[in-house]
Amino acid sequence: MTEQEHVRNELLMNVPNCAADNPTCGEVGGAKPARGLGASTDGAMICDESDGGFCTARPSTESADASALQTLLESLTEGKFLCGGRPPKLTLGLKKTACMLLCLGISRRQAASILDIDHATITHAAQSDPDFGRALERAEEFSQLGPKIALAAAGMRDWRAAAWLLSHQKKHPSRLTSEERAANHQRDVEMTRYSSELSKLSDVLEEERTAAREQRDQARKQQRQAEKQARFEAGNPQLFRRKKKRDQQADVTEQAGEASVGHG
Questions:
Q1: Final residue of a structural domain among 136, 168, 200
Q2: Residue 57's pLDDT is what?
Q3: pLDDT by residue (tens digit) across 219-238?
Q4: Least crowded by CB within 10 Å, which of 55, 61, 85, 207?
Q5: Any idea what the Cα angle at residue 263 is, between residues 262 and 264, rounded to 5°?
Q6: Which residue segment(s) compose the domain that 156 sits in?
Q7: Would you say the C-alpha torsion 44, 45, 49, 50 has a positive or negative sign?
Q8: Looking at the structure, do residues 63 and 96 belong to the same domain, yes or no?
Q9: pTM beyond cutoff 0.70
Q10: Does residue 173 fall inside a structural domain?
Q11: How many domains, in total, are found in the chain?
């Protein structure tokens, strides 16, 4: 038994019994109006000796009152007992309206603006309610059905507009499973690692090319300086005669010193 039925039964048990609370009639014959709890002022409750001295009521009036009481109790106890907290912003009616708007080709942000709610509310509701999320996806897929039908009918007048809509409409990818997401993540990690290794190798090769280019430039520079010095000495031999003589004497002295060190 639910909590609603339990409350309704308690209310029904507390309703006073008309037959038990009505007073008995006097011994003097004749019908008399009843007095006491449950008596009616319009003569609906009467006493008669033929009924064993007890008050009886008109069946039609009593059945109508009981039906009205039952309806009242059902209306009072049909609501759900809430546990407190804020009411949900996205009710069932708003969810249906959002799906209907998406079927018309409207985006989720535009649907949220029409419903006067935040677009993040629809996203969070779709994440917390998988059924609602699948309904949104089906609605977005259904929004492309009209243009596809228009394209299929080649004789229709607006097939160019339908083709433009299909080419410019946002594509909705299919929902991936957890295994597919894990595989995609692993593939992205491998691609990132591979790209990082390629970047490091490219940096090393670039450094080697830079060092080789600098060495070539330095060698060319030294060669040009040597050629220039040789041309200058060839054009002015008298300027370098003493220098050459001193260099020759220094070489002879150095060779003699090395020879003496070797004999010692």
A1: 168
A2: 47
A3: 999 999 888 888 877 777 77
A4: 85
A5: 90
A6: 92-168
A7: positive
A8: no
A9: no
A10: no
A11: 3
